[in-house]
Write a structure and sequence with these properties.
Layout (H helix, E strand, L loop, with lengths): L1 E4 L1 H6 L13 E6 L22 E2 L2 E2 L2 E3 H9 L6 E6 L5 H15 L4 E4 L5 H9 L4 E7 L3 H7 L5 H15 L2 E7 L5 H14 L1 E7 L15 H15 L8 E4 L2 E6 L2 H10 L33 H14 L1 E3 L3
Parallel strand pairs: 2-6, 6-7, 7-8, 8-9, 9-10, 12-13
Antiparallel strand pairs: 1-2, 1-5, 3-4, 11-12
The structure holds iron/sulfur cluster.
Iron/sulfur cluster binds next to loops.
């Protein structure tokens, strides 16, 4: 059996040689060669003319599974393993078999990102010692979901998210900024899924030639404000009701300035979000370009740049 690895994961496991701007702390694997889905932004969608090696901006070469399992057994600083899945007819059998083999090779926690399946499969994955299952909802609203993810059902995704929480005790929802949603819609989605018991993995829309969607990536200033909003909600330091919007744009976060300043100074809101130890280097970024999600602690210069970007986008004020 074969499995695909992000190029950075392949380098970390010693299966490829390449220069990296940052090393992944999670091994990212991918099951499937092409997807039956038709998500308009996705390189792997069945209607996409993008390079099939790509998922977002990352190349995913294929390897023999036994070689990957062998290299996972070495101590290489890997803190988590993630299986991302395309939609294809034998996916579930492959997924269960792969999860069992990965768990036999490594004690690292195992995450899966997948489209909705019957709850029995979630129970089988839990029994195979999968730690958590996340879902690529991608869109902040039902209307946008219908436009961007034709063929999928918003209501089925909502049911599936609830089922992942029932089976695993917590959920994980991937959302993309820059698909046409307002800040208010996205921040409301952060709150809704946080209140359900989900972590939010936030991504920036990344245009890739050959996909169906011709949009620009979100402005970095906007993304920094959304990252701060996500972080404050995730750590119960603010709620959507503490935020002010003008025509859907986030203009103010009404928290004690010490709270927001502490978060900004730590730089944590601007790190990659998702499962623990997920850092996804270069998933949304061009080499040498702006870092939407920082894969490592921010340098003082990166923190200053993030703070200035926030100030350009919004004002952070006190409630008193
Ligand atoms: S289901 Fe996932 S992999 Fe398939 S087209 Fe949609 S976003 Fe891409």
């Amino acid at each position: 059996m074969h499995i695909r690895l992000s190029i950075g994961s392949a380098v970390s496991l010693g299966l490829r040689a390449a220069k990296m701007e940052a090393a992944p702390t999670t091994v990212y694997t991918l099951l499937g060669e092409t997807c039956l889905g038709a998500c308009r932004f996705c390189t792997q969608a069945r209607r996409s003319d993008a390079d099939r090696q790509l998922l977002s901006r990352v190349i995913w070469p294929e390897f023999e599974l036994p070689a990957v399992l062998d290299s996972l057994q070495a101590d290489n600083g890997i803190r988590r393993v993630c299986i991302q899945t395309l939609l294809y007819p034998d996916l579930l059998d492959d997924l269960l078999a792969t999860a069992r083999q990965l768990k036999a090779a490594s004690d690292a926690p195992l995450s899966i990102c997948m489209n909705p399946v019957d709850k029995d499969w979630l129970i089988a994955l839990k029994e195979a010692r999968v730690e958590r299952v996340g879902v690529g909802l991608d869109c902040a609203t039902e209307t946008l979901f219908a436009e961007m993810k034709p063929g999928f059902s918003w209501h089925r995704y909502m049911q599936f998210i609830d089922e992942t929480i029932e089976v695993f005790g917590a959920g994980s929802v991937h959302l993309i900024a820059g698909l046409g949603e307002t800040d208010k819609e996205l921040v409301q989605a952060f709150q809704t899924f946080h209140d359900k018991g989900c972590g939010i993995a936030l991504f920036a829309f990344t245009p890739v030639r050959g996909t169906q969607l011709d949009l620009s990536p979100p402005p970095l200033e906007r993304y920094r404000a959304l990252q701060l909003a996500r972080y404050l909600i995730a750590y119960n330091q603010a709620r959507v009701d503490d935020m002010t919007f003008a025509d859907g744009k986030l203009v103010d976060i009404n928290v004690d300035p010490a709270v927001s300043e502490c978060a900004i100074e730590a730089g944590t809101p601007f790190r990659t979000s998702g499962c623990p130890h997920c850092n996804r280097p270069m998933y949304n970024e061009r080499p040498g370009g702006a870092r939407y999600n920082h894969p490592a602690p921010l340098t003082p210069a990166e923190k200053s740049a993030a703070r200035e970007a926030l100030w350009r986008y919004l004002r952070i004020s006190s409630t008193d």
